[in-house]
User: Fold these one by one.
Assistant:
Number 1:
Amino acid sequence: MSEKAFEVITGGLQTTVQDLGRPGYLSIGMPIAGAQDSFSLRIGNLLVGNEPGKKPLEEQKNHHLVLKN
């Protein structure tokens, strides 16, 4: 488990947590969902030193305040 953490003080109206989706459930009507650009999600995690598959925040033109612990 990583010791890295942060606290979101104010989240944007459309700030979401994204992942790589849930493939394999289309037969029961569940879409894959997840990040629209999974390649960029993987590269972003690599660039900031996250483990593969970590879930980033996605921001949609709103303001938020993040404090690093």
Number 2:
Amino acid sequence: MSVALFFSSFLTVPYFPCICLSFCGAEFIRANQTSKRLTTNLNMTIKVGINGFGRIGRMVFQALCDDGLLGNEIDVVAVVDMNTDARYFAYQMKYDSVHGKFKHSVSTTKSKPSVAKDDTLVVNGHRILCVKAQRNPADLPWGKLGVEYVIESTGLFTVKSAAEGHLRGGARKVVISAPASGGAKTFVMGVNHNDYNPREHHVVSNASCTTNCLAPLVHVLVKEGFGISTGLMTTVHSYTATQKTVDGVSVKDWRGGRAAALNIIPSTTGAAKAVGMVIPSTQGKLTGMAFRVPTADVSVVDLTFIATRDTSIKEIDAALKRASKTYMKNILGYTDEELVSADFISDSRSSIYDSKATLQNNLPNERRFFKIVSWYDNEWGYSHRVVDLVRHMAARDRAAKL
């Protein structure tokens, strides 16, 4: 913080009768820390850094822009990747094969005259520094840049202890945009986000896109008293960047090495089991698998389950529809139209329940065996939940005066 900014932060706060211009040692440090707190209170933008500007990192950034948050509620200070050529980042943002052209102004510039290439994005007039990736997140300059919240979207630092490197680099909190291990708390917006404890949860996971689709369905079933005795989930999932365009080497997953655009590929997923982390009453009751299919975006969850009480498709359908309009609005959607996957591209909701695809077992007197189906844009919907979680954490942190 510059001396000019230091004094301006005092001058904007009333009832400071005098300012001592003589500081030394610890007194200056304490005063500087006070100044930072005052500045934070006056400027309520959330300072964010994105580690990994790949598919999800860019989608999160675009979600911030489309929702009008960039420069208003959230200030993206820096994006981190192996490449720091801002012109290439700008190109990737401008043109997207799935979601279309970027709707906002984007240009590039140099952070200082001495750098060889443009290393700063300028989006809607806001400057975002492009920072070189580091093997150890602790070596990233979050503290120097004033970053409070890091969105960890490289896919490399999903173990809590590894992601904690961002804290040592100066960040206050880390949101992992993937399932995490090693004790990181998992949150699904609309389901268990209110369990967030500002003083305990410093590295958290936003779960997977599939868990974000499935958990809202299960949450409504449990909340509305239908319950789940046991269940099997299948996600029919679009291919992702981890797959191969042509047959290639995949020693750990032989089928996963086959050409993504030419095959339906059975795969594993921990999404169903992860629901037990966010809805403890379902722990051990759900499991599932995935089929990776030749579509670039939008996936669909098929949940087959046995309820804990007698009910009907009509009753379940009504409960999900009601929830989509009330306590799960903007998280859970509802459709009774004849829609297909392309109709859900760029849908920002986590899960869109398909009323027409829901089934009840037709055995005589069977009133507990059901199948429900829900769509999700595995890129766009998930990225919006990452943004929502950061905003939720920041609000809670500030309420706790952290």
